[in-house]
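=== Per-residue structure ===
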Amino acid sequence: MRLFFILFLSSLFMSACGTDQHHNKKQTLDQLLAAYPDSVPLLIQKGNILIDSLAFDKALSFGAKAFRLDSSNLEARVLYAECLINKPNRSADDIFRAFTMYRNLVVKAPKNVDALIGLANTLVMLNDNDNAFKYINKALRLDKNNRDAYILKGTIYREAGNLKLAISSYETAVQQDPNYYMTYLQLGSLYEYQENPICIEKYMTAYQLQPKNVEVIYALAFAKEKFGEVKSAQRLYRKMTKVDSTFADGYFHLGYLAQFTFNQPDSAMFYYKKALRVNSQHVPSYHNMGLLYEDRNDLANALFSYGKALKVDSTYQISKDRVKVLRKRI
């Protein structure tokens, strides 16, 4: 599970480059970085913007460079540590390095809220929730409205299986920052787990904030499908394939609805084939194609499709079960 707590954006550092402030306002951040590639304040600002949009892999290069240029800069150290614990394929060494950096930062700046929350986050990753809570509570004593502190509390409660307190913490985080879509996704997933249709409301809010984010569209579409709003789900899956034509699950669910809800087997086959064109490893599409072939009494192609599914995932039980049944019929 990935932890989604993000540092607040740094203040604008346009005057840090030694250029005219009025002139800087007319330039974009990227233009300023092109002109002043070694400006630590600009690197920090860019890194934090990328982190806030969850682009951790891109943020890492900016955080690492800012830290390399000025390792004594508090914000640069916080940014780099944040990048380390959220980078793709992070290692145990990355987590421990970030923990060490945050721990040293808290010693030097015991009232730095970002450092306190960062240290708490690494402690969660190291399975030390008791001490994590201590630092979260220290951060909240300094800033009682800190969104990320409540998100991290919610994450701890969720991992512990206390869904009531997890939901309460995420709801409090929403009150602090109603424009952060990830919190609504977290809430939606918990309500969906409880089979509570209020999850649609939470996903819808995330969708309104991020209408072109395929993960958000997918979450909303799946919840609508699950709770019977199939026409609306179908429209959302179609939108998802337009936003990202390489997202196989969008085509798969269109096929699934065509097959099992709208009784349109030809459309279902069309969408499953599209899903497999963009992802040749999409096991459920192979399996459901097998079911369609069975309905046509084309047992050879049904077995072939199930075989494709099992070639990708030899443990895919429902395909194994169908193969056993069909072999008895041949």
Notes: Confidence is low (pLDDT under 50) at residues 1-26.
